[in-house]
Structures are given as structure tokens and as C-alpha cells.
Amino acid sequence: xxxxxxxxxxxxxxxxxxxxxxxxxxxxxxxxxxxxxxxxxxxxxxxxxxxxxxxxxxxxxxxxxxxxxxxxxxxxxxxxxxxxxxxxxxxxxxxxxxxxxxxxxxxxxxxxxxxxxxxxxxxxxxxxxxxxxxxxxxxxxxxxxxxxxxxxxxxxxxxxxxxxxxxxxxxxxxxxxxxxxxxxxxxxxxxxxxxxxxxxxxxxxxxxxxxxxxxxxxxxxxxxx
Length: 225
Prior knowledge:
The protein is mostly beta strands. It has a single domain (10-224), classed as Porin. The chain contains two helices and 14 strands; from the N terminus they run ααββββββββββββββ. A hairpin with a 2-residue loop joins strand 5 and strand 6 (73-86). It is globular. The two termini are 26 Å apart.
């Protein structure tokens, strides 16, 4: 599965030399005690290391890549799109391609659209292309609503409710489900950010192979450069 992203460099070619010179490149690294994606573990409830690169231009175009351990494999996300603001409203339209190092037949691509206003964020992801092993997830929808708030002492809290709606063609076992997540983050300056999270879904034990209905607590660290 995948957080989370295909970005082609065609956007870069469309920029003038001055815009390219003004573009920003950043990197990030992280580690988590459990890689949770849309309420489901991607590492069989074990740790995962991750890292990525991002490019953003003054025009609003952006592109990036993110690599993480996932199950007994590596997940590589390639993403790109366009983001901007109109007054207090922010928007983002992009593509995310999820690729797997040892199983290309599990790769898939999503269209991702999101908007934000003050402390609120809402978005929708649509799987429009999937390889043979996961072809059943084509036309799946994921939509979510989130809120984030700054707290004293460099703490912040984020709340997310997301809804997964499988298209279901060819697999009657796929179930709609809702997931909930709360993230409490402490910014520590040069030492990065530490986040304590709790995640749950309304799945029963039999709704998804390898999953259960237990609430999960996990801790993550990340740092950008």
C-alpha cells in the first residue's frame, strides 16, 4: 500500500532558467515503529526506515520521491503535481506512483486532489492504473478530512478520518472501511520531529487478510534538510 505521490520532470522542462535557479530541493529521513498507511500496517507491525527528496519551483510545480521499507520489500513512491493558494484556500493536484522493488506487478498509480483552509484539510485519491497483481484495486477511492492545531511548547496535534471505498470488481471480499488517526508531534529544532500516533479502523478480524481490529500505537521520528 502506499502515503503516501507520477511525477514526471516534464514540469521542470516547462520552467524558465530563472525559475529553475530559484527552485528549492529538500531531503528528509525518518524511522517509525510501525508503518501505518490508511489505517493498515505495511510492515507487519514492525519498524521501517524511510527517506526522500523533493523539488519545488516558484510556479507551484513540484516533484519528489520517497523510499521506505514495506513488508519484506521496499516501496518507492514517485510523485509530482501543482500546488497553489487562492486567498486562505490552498490546493494541490498531483499523481502518485507506488512501486515495489521485487514485485513490479504490485505497482499502482493514483490521482490525488486536496484542498486546505486554515486548520482543515480534505482530499480524494483515485486509483486509475494498477498492474496485474493488484488490478482489483483500480477505481478504488480514498477520501479524508484532517485538522491540525499548534499547541504550546512546540507541540502540535493532527486528527484524520479517512474512508476507503474499494471498487470491488473481481473480489467480493473487499470491504469499505473507515480509519481514524491522532498524531501528537513535538518539534525539537535541529533534532527533528517526534510524533506519537494512535490509529484504528472499523475493520473486523476477517475483513482484511493479515489485519485485525486492534488499535495501534506507534512512534516516529523525522527530520528535513
